[in-house]
Design brief:
This protein is of the alpha/beta class. Helix content is 27%, strand content 26%. The termini are far apart.
C-alpha cells in the first residue's frame, strides 16, 4: 500500500496481514483522486471515511491537505495500525478515529462533512442503504461529495444525487453530490 499523491506521495505501508480489509488498489485510488481534485478543493476540508479499513483513503486525503479526518472502523487491529501510521506521519492531530459500527455512527452523527468515502466489504448485504443514509441523515455540507466504492453488480444511477460512475475493473466508484442550499 502506498500514498499516490500530495505531501506524502510514495510513502509505503505494510498493513497487518491479518486484516479483514480490502485496501483500494493504487490504480483505482489514483483514478479516484484524479477525479476528486477536479470536483473539490481538498485543502482544509472535513472528511469522513466510513469502513476506514487500513486508513489508505484517509492518508491520501491528509497527504493532499484535508484538515479534519474522521474515520470509522470496527477492527481493533486496523485501528492500531492507523494510529501507528498517523503518528509516524505526524498527522495524528488531524484524525478522529471511531471504533464502531458504521450504520450506528451514520444514524447518530450530527456533523456535516465536505467529503465522505465509503469502501464497504463488497459482500455487505445492506450496501444499498449507505447512499440513502448519507442523504437522509444530511451528512454532507452544501456542495459536498460522497463516493461509494462497490462492484459492477451495484448500480446507483437512479439515485437523485448521483453524479457519475467510474469503473476500474472489479472496483467501481459512484459519485454523489449534495446540492448547495440555494439550488
Amino acid at each position: 500500500m502506498r500514498i499516490v499523491g500530495g505531501e506524502f506521495r510514495g510513502r509505503k505501508f505494510s498493513p497487518p496481514t491479518s486484516t479483514p480489509a480490502r485496501p483500494t488498489t493504487d490504480v483505482a485510488k489514483e483514478g479516484l483522486f484524479n477525479t476528486l481534485t477536479n470536483m473539490l478543493d481538498l485543502e482544509d476540508i472535513a472528511t469522513c471515511d466510513l469502513f476506514g479499513g487500513t486508513g489508505s483513503i484517509s492518508y491520501e486525503l491528509a497527504s493532499r491537505g484535508a484538515g479534519e479526518l474522521t474515520l470509522i472502523e470496527r477492527d481493533m487491529g486496523n485501528i492500531n495500525f492507523i494510529k501507528k501510521t498517523v503518528k509516524e506521519l505526524g498527522i495524528a492531530d488531524k484524525f478522529h478515529i471511531i471504533k464502531g459500527d458504521v450504520f450506528r455512527f451514520m444514524k447518530q452523527n450530527t456533523q456535516k462533512f465536505d467529503f465522505i468515502f465509503a469502501g464497504p466489504p463488497y459482500a455487505l448485504e445492506n450496501i444499498d442503504d449507505i447512499p440513502m443514509l448519507v442523504f437522509q441523515q444530511q451528512m454532507l455540507a452544501d456542495d459536498g461529495i460522497f463516493v461509494l466504492e462497490h462492484t459492477p453488480r451495484n448500480d446507483y444511477q437512479q439515485h437523485p444525487n448521483f453524479l457519475r460512475m467510474k469503473n476500474y475493473g472489479t472496483t467501481v466508484f459512484s459519485y454523489f453530490k449534495q446540492p448547495s442550499g440555494d439550488e
